[in-house]
Amino acid sequence: MTSARERTPVQDRPVRMVFTTRAGGASASPYDSFNLGDHVGDDPEAVAANRRRLAATVGLAPEDFVWMEQLHTNNVTFVDGPQKRPVAATDAVVTTTPGLALCVLVADCTPVLLADHGAGVVAAAHAGRIGARNGIVARTVEAMVSRGASPGTITALLGPAAAGSSYEVPLEMARDVEKHLPGSMTRTAQGSPGLDVRAGIVRQLFELGVTHVDADPRDTITDGDFFSYRRDGTTGRQAGVIWLTGTTRKEG
């Protein structure tokens, strides 16, 4: 059900990061089966069951998960406790509260998880073409810094997303995104204009001073383990989730 890059023993990690796949849930086709999106037309009871399973798997309560009303904005919101509803009109959330799981839903867009272990600040960002072009990742880093993080000690993990070899767009669109997010314009496997949003984000993070960056290379458009809006149209959403475990210690 989940995949994650694990660098230290579970009990010692101050931050946990998880990416889900589409397998192992309760949703029926075309949302089969571990759909976590409650806005795509799936049976609400199936989505709720999937979210409960996610919570049980990672050892948190369902009410500790923070979801967003993702609208491809560059809005970043700080949260310090559980939210009864998805955080309105935002595409990134930041917290310093242990045990609060920040969630980003995707089906081709890039999920970006960021953490400053020492400062005790984490964030989750939804970086689709529009949001990435308009600076959602840079604004998220800025919001983390305002809460005590430092770019040089932030770790970033980018999840499975549409790859440049598959993500075909009109030439003018590719040029426009490249202008605002350098490094993202590319060619698809067919030789047509394309976008590699992940590559642009990685370059942007380095320019911001965030050098501890890891990117999962899997392509949601071609990999059937993941939901893909561009491939299937009506489909579910996988999630990236990040939370402070409570073992983080702030210096000073």
Strand content: 15-25%
Terminus-to-terminus distance? 39 Å
Radius of gyration: 17 Å
List the uncertain runs: 1-11, 248-252
Structural class: alpha+beta
Summarize the structure.
The chain has 252 residues and is α+β, with helices and mostly antiparallel strands. Helix content is 22%, strand content 23%.
Give an overview of the whole structure.
- With 252 residues, the chain is of the alpha+beta class.
- It has helices at 44-58, 129-133, 136-146, 171-180, 197-207, 229-232, and strands at 2-3, 15-20, 65-66, 76-78, 92-95, 101-106, 110-116, 121-127, 155-158, 185-187, 193-195, 212-215, 238-244.
- Strands 4-5-8-7-9-12 form a six-stranded mixed sheet. Strands 1-2-13-6-3 form a five-stranded mixed sheet, with no helix packed on it. Strands 10-11 form a two-stranded antiparallel sheet.
- The longest helix is centred in the first third of the chain and has 15 residues, at 44-58.
- The model is unreliable at 1-11 and 248-252 (pLDDT under 50).
What labels describe this entry?
six-stranded mixed beta sheet, 6 helices, 252 residues, alpha+beta, disordered C terminus, disordered N terminus, globular, five-stranded mixed beta sheet, 13 strands
What's the helix and strand layout?
Elements (H helix, E strand, L loop, with lengths): L1 E2 L11 E6 L23 H15 L6 E2 L9 E3 L13 E4 L5 E6 L3 E7 L4 E7 L1 H5 L2 H11 L8 E4 L12 H10 L4 E3 L5 E3 L1 H11 L4 E4 L13 H4 L5 E7 L8
Parallel strand pairs: 3-6, 4-5, 9-12
Antiparallel strand pairs: 1-2, 2-13, 5-8, 6-13, 7-8, 7-9, 10-11
